[in-house]
Amino acid sequence: MTDRYHAFTVVLERDIRSDDAEAVINAIRQLRHVLSVEPHVVDVEDWAARERVRRELGQKLWEILYPKEKTGT
Fold first, then answer.
1. How does pLDDT run across 3-34, given as a tens digit for each residue?
2. The whole model's pTM is what?
């Protein structure tokens, strides 16, 4: 038995301006079986999530560059 899909999510590699996105939106609309395309505006939640990820990656890189000394060995 095969699965049936009702939607796909497309993630852009970076935020783009609405006027620049129009060509991408129109191209997706041209695909077979596409009923609608709805863009999502960047908001404060997106910014907060990116900042958290940036902080976590920075912390991990810092720990790689400057590992803590192991004591008692």
1. 999 999 999 999 999 999 999 999 999 999 99
2. 0.64
Closest CA to 29 of 20, 41, 39, 42: 39
SS (H, E, C) 9-57: CCCCCCCCCHHHHHHHHHHHHCCCCCCCCCCCCCCHHHHHHHHHHHHHH
In the chain, where are the structural domains located? 1-73
Residues 19, 41: Cα–Cα separation, whole Å: 13
In angstroms, the Cα distances linking 28 to 6, 17, 35, 40, 71 are 15, 17, 10, 15, 57
| Token duo for residue 54 | 């940036």
Return the biggest CA–CA distance within the chain.
Answer: 65
